[in-house]
Amino acid sequence: MRLNRYLASAGLGSRRGVETLIKEGRVKINGVVITDLSTQVSPQDVVKVGQKVVRAQQSLYVLLNKPKGYMVTASDERDRKTVYECLPPEWPRVFHVGRLDRESEGLLLLTNDGDLSLALTHPRYKIDKEYEVLLDRPFDPAHREKLLKGFHIIGGRAKMESVKAPGGKKITVILRQGIKRQIRLMLYELGYEVEQLRRVRIGTLHLGGMRPGEWRLLNKKEVEALRQGAPASAPSAPPPERVSSGDR
User: Fold this and answer.
1) Which residues contact 154 (CB under 8 A, 6 or more apart)?
2) Is residue 111 part of a domain?
3) Catalytic site residues?
4) Among the residues of 70-179, which ranges form H helices?
5) Which pLDDT tens digit goes with each residue over 64-86?
6) Which residue segment(s) compose the domain that 226 sits in?
7) Which CATH number belongs to the domain containing residue 87 in this structure?
């Protein structure tokens, strides 16, 4: 395994990110400083970053149904509940891909694959994110075009890719941007308060019938579909193994 991939799989960042550690001479293999990015690491080698021994870990790709009221952060200074409390404590460190605010719920990806995480959050990666939204009053169909055309909010110019409004207070929207609190801020500008916000899809991944706090591992086809940005093939394939964290 190439050294940069080894360090990335140890949870130190993306392959591109860990190259800085190598170039700065902070990485040793068997006591020898290594600056060659193409260096191969064997299972018998001892790899250190600074004074710390690091080991490659199994890549994990996790889909979590984030419960409302949980923070998307590894720790919280106010000791509020975090999404990491929904995961097995013995797991290696994983990172959330994107965010959902504390009052939002639904599909959240977590992984220790730094390259995939970087790709999914890069502005050039135009991945669809679908949300179900409950408003405080019936949606006015005249506002649909404004949301699709876009306008400025705190954080930049925001637009929605799709707005479905069958009637009443519920709408379904699709985003490809990642502006903080984008849906809430756009709808607030039009006079609405969001009472419930639930993400139900990221790219080819669907939340389905998972309960709040429940998680499952992605299968190989789902991971590959995320990498390619294309629909997964073989829709008749059996569903991936599901594992529950319990009723948290």
Assistant:
1) 180, 185
2) yes
3) 101
4) 114-121, 144-149
5) 999 999 999 988 889 999 999 99
6) 61-123+204-232
7) 3.30.70.580
